[in-house]
Amino acid sequence: METQPHGLRSYIAPGAPATRRPCDGSESSLRVEFGFTPRWYRQRLDIDFSERWHADPVYRAKTVTQMRRELRKQFPDIPIGGDFDAMPAGNLDGAFGALVVAGIFGVPIEYYQDNWPAAAHAHLSEEQIRAMSTLRLEDSRFFSLLMEQLDAIEKEFGRIEGYLNWQGVLNNAYRIRGPEILTDLVINPELATHLFAIITETMIHGMHLVYARQAATGIVVDHATVSNCLVNMVSPEQYREFLLPCDQRIADAFPRFGVHNCAWKVDPYIRDYAKIKPLDYVDMGLESNLAKAREACPNTRRALMYTPMALASNSLERLRADLRRIHSELGPCDVVIADIEASTSDERIREFWALTKEVASA
After folding, report:
1. How large is the greatest C-alpha to C-alpha distance in the chain, in angstroms?
2. How confident is the model at residue 340 (pLDDT cuts 50, 70, 90)?
């Protein structure tokens, strides 16, 4: 099976939520990406994932070194967490979790010792949204601190590597406006459109500024991905009318673009995703019509979001059957298992890895 060396693939750094990075041509027809929760690392290494982990890149780098050492100790033959030789421990991976854009908009962030940060429920009112205009990132205290962190990374480590998680337009709108954004789509569509447009432009501008700062240290990052984790809460018609133009606007601004659909059934949205140009990555859940997804996006690097619950509870025969189906109907593709908890045994990780090798070579 042919791979897509110019596409994007799943990437989960130690302590970080899932994101995407460029393919390098080495991808197999059934490539697995494992990722663990902060709680998994805290129980083993007593790492504190509170605010300092996100705001202090030197401290974060020390913990990344610890996490990498633990991964190589427990899984010496499994490439979990990226290329440690190529990527310095001091980088942007995981900083502020999925709340970079929410932080730029002033949403208070709650930090935890054993989890990713969460957005406080301090949602903006209709009046505040109506009064909002395009953000000046220079006026955002959060973004200024973020750029200072990039300076600190360069000073300490020489180059600014890694990938922030910018999320997607609807995900960000939900953190800013709250569940009212879903009602707005029905009874106040002009307000929703206004907020979506501001978020879209803020994401593009923020990525361009961060990428330019990275480029100044010799690191080229030129892709964007959107996380559509809440897309199943809107109809396909609502996605097509309100959100597809935002995703296309972001895709227009970068040479490479991908869509994280999350582990939901992609069928209602895949035809619209396929309209986005470029489309270098798309993922989906196991309930999706995988063959139809491959047919709709034949030149896109595809991925299957396999849930950590299924990994932990399914029999080996069920895991093997699922992998055979994924490989046959969706491959070449990634199989992404994010958010693995400490209750899942290390042996189960090894068993799943062995099964992917078995199925890919059959």
Report:
1. 60
2. very high
The one-letter code for the residue type at 200 is T
And the tokens for 304? 């299957």
Architecture of the domain spanning 8-361: Alpha-Beta Barrel (3.20)
> What is the spatial distance between Cα 60 and Cα 168, in angstroms, rounded to a whole number?
25
- Give residue 222's identity as a one-letter amino acid code: D
The lowest-confidence range among 1-5, 28-32, 53-57, 254-258 is: 1-5
Q: Which residues pair with 282 in a beta bridge?
A: 259, 302
Note whether 298 and 263 are within 8 A (CB). Answer: no
Q: Which two tokens stand for residue 98?
A: 């999925």
Which distant-in-sequence residues (6+ apart) come within 8 Å of 42 by Cβ?
A: 48, 49, 113, 114
Length of the chain: 362
Q: How many CB atoms lie within 10 A of CB 215?
A: 13
Q: Over the stretch 32-51, which tens digit does the pLDDT of each residue have?
A: 999 999 999 999 999 999 99
b/e code 9-44 from CB counts within 10 Å (16+ = b): bbbbbbbbbbbbbbbeeebbebbbbbbbbbbbbbee
Can you give the pTM of this predicted structure? 0.96
| Cα 28 to Cα 353: distance, rounded to the nearest angstrom | 13
Please give the sequence-ordered ranges of beta strands (E in DSSP) within the chain, or none if there are none. 8-11, 19-22, 30-36, 109-112, 115-119, 223-227, 256-260, 281-284, 301-305, 333-340
Give the single-character DSSP code of 57: H
Q: What is the pLDDT of residue 1?
A: 37
Q: Is the peptide bond before 245 cis (omega within 30 degrees of 0)?
A: no
pLDDT beyond 70 at 4:
no
